[in-house]
Design a protein that fits this description.
The chain is an all-alpha fold and 48 residues long. It has one domain. Helix content is 83%, strand content 0%. Helix 1 packs antiparallel against helix 2. It is globular and about 25 Å long. The mean pLDDT is 84.
Length: 48
């Protein structure tokens, strides 16, 4: 799935690749929101 690949790139990419992936998430739209929220929640838990 495109969202999963984009998330993998987002987690492992350099700044410029992340910048490009941001544009992809904008094109995907609402279906991208839920997976991105899960990443944010995971990182918040991971930091504590």
């Amino acid at each position: 799935m495109v969202i999963n690949l984009a998330i993998e790139v987002l987690e492992n990419a350099d700044f410029l690749e992340k910048w490009d992936i941001d544009k992809l998430f904008k094109q995907i739209g609402k279906p991208a929101i839920s997976p991105l929220i899960e990443i944010i929640k995971y990182r918040e838990i991971d930091l504590e």
